[in-house]
Amino acid sequence: MSVTDHERGWFVKELLGSAAPGAAAGHGDCAVDASEPVQTEVDHAPVVRARLESLREGDSPRAAGVSMEHVWVLAEQEGELPPITVHRPTMRVIDGAHRVLAAKLRGESDIAVRFFEGDAGAAFVLAVRRNVTHGLPLTLAERTAAAARIVRTHPEWSDRTIASVAAISAKLVASVRRHAGATEVVARVGRDGRMRPADVTPGRRRAGELMRANPGMPLREVCTLAGISLGTASDVRQRINRGEDPVPPSRRSGADMVPRPPVPTTPERCPEPTMILEQLRRDPSLRLNEIGRLLLRLLNTNAIAPDQWETFADTVPSYRRDMVAQLAGQCAFRWQEFATLLQQRQQDEP
Q: CA 179 to CA 60: how far, in whole Å?
């Protein structure tokens, strides 16, 4: 089922309204380049030992704090705990609060650490990145709240850049930006590190002219000449193919800046997974090669009716819930990455 802009905006308002006041204070002077490979640098930082008593509680994106169930699971595992990430200037834990408590339960006095040297704002972005790719996954509400904070501290970052950090959609980031009261900027930094105008209306117009004059022009060339992102160029092409204006009505009229009463809509119904699978199984390009058949088996395994999840949840013992939740979150994230890859390749095709 699709989510309307009104529903998405309501969710964001509810979330931001319940967030702790001042949660984003203190980091307004942070300036981190969107293209800086912070996470990669930390991954290659040397591993050292740090005394547990020297560590301080971090600025975590988790609203509910630590999960003691997950701490006990980690404490009972054999072998050394993986290195945690610590902000060296403050000795605050960026990633690994559960491991720190697990080490204390084990009676250990120190723990393996990789240090991060950046400022507090960059440390928070790194904490979000870490906690959406491994460990106990952040909830959608926590990821959305984190995006709201990053919007305030990094208003120059594009919606897609922030979406890639918080593992949410760019549309949700755009809705967060509208309700978060972020500083207005004339240009934003994309995921590729390039600066583009925040108002892409002129770029959309230019892209439309280019596509009409040369329908076969590759999208990447359109991006370069019009100064827009690949996603925007793809949207313009779809609008041109449908005979529509390359600029959405809200951008043409400025109506997106004017509060309007919600218009009741009937949510679009997506086809049932079984129907989609049946169509895919009939496609010879998938069923007549080994990799295609493997993909079909994986999709079939994951096409589970909603009521079956309750049965599965009842089956998981209480002491394994955190572990199963962690693995399920990682699987969901990988499937989302796969979906994004397919959409990107679709957009790249002329």
A: 22
User: Distances from the Cα of 100 to the Cαs of 115, 119, 319, 320, in angstroms?
Assistant: 15, 22, 19, 20
Determine phi and psi for 76, rounding to 5 degrees.
-85, -10
Determine what percent of the chain falls in helix, strand and coil, rounding each to the nearest 5.
Answer: 55, 10, 35
**In angstroms, what is the C-alpha Rg of the chain?**
23
Pair of tokens at residue 1: 């089922």
Closest CA to 303 of 344, 263, 274, 266: 274
* Helix or strand run (H / E) with residue 159: helix 159-166
For the stretch 70-94, pLDDT in tens is 889 899 988 899 999 999 999 999 9
Least confident window among 91-95, 134-138, 267-271 = 267-271
Give the residue ranges of DSSP H helices in 59-158.
68-76, 97-105, 120-133, 140-153
How is residue 169 annotated by DSSP? Answer: -
Scan for tokens 């204070």, then name that residue.
25
Over residues 160-219, the pLDDT tens digits come to 888 888 888 888 888 888 777 666 665 566 666 666 666 678 888 888 899 988 888 898
Cβ-in-10-Å burial (0-12, 13-18, 19+) of 219 comes to buried
For the whole model, what pTM was predicted?
A: 0.49
Cα separation of 329 and 94, whole Å? 20
Tell which residue, 189, 230, 235, has the closest CA to residue 208. Answer: 235
Whose tokens are 């092409």? That residue is: 237
pLDDT in tens, 146-176: 888 888 888 888 888 888 888 888 888 888 8
Residues 6+ apart with CB under 8 A from 80: 112
Listed in sequence order, the residues at least 6 apart from 321 whose beta carbon sits closer than 8 Å to its beta carbon are 69
